[in-house]
Amino acid sequence: MSDIFRNYDKNKNNTIELTYRDMLIHQKMELSILGISIINSKSYRYNIWDIINKLDEIVDDSDPDTDLPQIIHCYQTAESIRLNYLQPNMMIKNIEIKSLFTSQEWNDVPLQFKNLYNTTLDKLYSHIIYWDWFLLIGFIHDLGKVMLLPEFGNLPQYMVVGDTFPLGNKLDKNYVFYNKNYHANNPDLNLNIYMDNCGFDNVIFSWGHDEYLARTLHINKTYLPPEALYIIRYHSFYSWHTPANGVMGYKHLANYKDWYMLPLLKCFQKADLYSKTPNISDNSHIKSIYDDLIHKYIPQKMLRMSSCFFIS
Ligand SMILES: [Fe+2]
Ligand SMILES: [Fe+2]
Q1: Residue 11 pLDDT
Q2: Ligand 1 center to residue 210 CA distance, Å?
Q3: Distance 159 CA to ligand 1 centre (A)
Q4: At 270, is the secondary structure helix, strand, or coil?
Q5: How far is CA 250 from CA 181, 192, 277, in A?
Q6: What's the pLDDT score for residue 127?
Q7: Which residues neighbour 179 within 8 Å (Cβ) at sequence distance 6 or greater?
Q8: Around ion ligand 2, which residues have CB less than 5 A away?
């Protein structure tokens, strides 16, 4: 089934490739560091429903699988999580972790972590009882794409969407359009500055909607668990969690936490990807479904958010 998604050969008018080309040329460590500093400094309060409704104005130029408004994609991702992973009582289904990997990916997992994964989701994450937050992050995971809009920075697509990658590290061969060599003159994609197994949380990533929303939720002190913020932060890190060639990239940077969280990223990715089907749901009842979850996890349904005016 995955073969019918993320097929970059169907490249809408070359827009996708141009977005990735610009990303590989222009993403720099200094821009990501600037973005982080902006989020940690100046922000304004917004009602989260106003932000969610703004997603209606956005289409993702890097995505070969959908031209739908983002709000429909968010709703479909959440409902896919409900259908595939959750029981009616909001506990996780006892799914074999190995089943989340392709056979090629599984062969690439070090023995230590094959042993860790020799169980089911409910047992590996037995400290989590209720998983209703998983639905909510399906619904809000792409909110960071508001950086495309004038009031949140008017950033170009290449600074907001697409697969993320570490900066200060050589680009992995499994990255989209690696063979076009667009990264050849980007110094931040031709270095190796990190210690082995330093952990992704200690790596500077390309700037995008993952990083923006994860950091925004972090400073807002929501009631979302750390697993939720981790999934949001790395959901576009395809080189690691869902490599096109079946060989996981950046393994040398991963620490125990990253391996422990990997099955969650794989669950989320399947819901994020396979929900991009063109059957548009009626969205008039979406608000009533998710309003209670927002109320539970995001105090007063308000978020302090920053405008990322840092690209000329
Ligand atoms: Fe996303
Ligand atoms: Fe998404």
Answers
A1: 59
A2: 7
A3: 13
A4: helix
A5: 18, 11, 30
A6: 98
A7: none
A8: 142, 272
Q: What is the dihedral of CA 117, 255, 193, 209, to 10 degrees?
A: 70
Structure confidence by residue, pLDDT tens digits, 16-69: 999 999 999 999 999 999 999 999 887 899 999 999 999 888 877 777 666 677
pLDDT for 239 equals 98
CA of 74 to the centre of ligand 2 (A): 6
How many other C-beta atoms can be found within 10 angstroms of the C-beta atom of residue 288? 8
CA pair distance 264, 197, nearest whole angstrom: 19
Q: What is the distance between the alpha carbons of residues 176 and 243, in angstroms, rounded to a whole number?
A: 10
Nearest to 70 by CA among 275, 229, 309: 275
- For the chain, list the strands marked E by DSSP: 44-47, 302-305
* 102 Cα: distance to centroid of ligand 1 (angstroms): 22
Average pLDDT of every residue of the chain: 91
CB atoms closer than 10 angstroms to residue 202 = 11
264 alpha carbon – ligand 1 mean position (Å): 15
Q: What is the pLDDT of residues 187-205, one digit of tens each?
A: 999 999 999 999 999 999 9
pTM of the full structure? 0.93
How many whole angstroms from 57 Cα to the centroid of ligand 1? 16
Q: Which amino acid is at 274?
A: Y
> Of 32, 34, 73, 30, which is closest to residue 55 (Cα–Cα)?
73
Counting ligands in written order, the one closest to the CA of 272 is: 2
Residues in the chain: 312
Token pair in block for residue 162: 């697409």
Asked whether residue 276 carries a pLDDT value surpassing 60, the answer given is no
Whether residue 266 contacts residue 241, with contact meaning beta carbons closer than 8 Å, is answered with yes
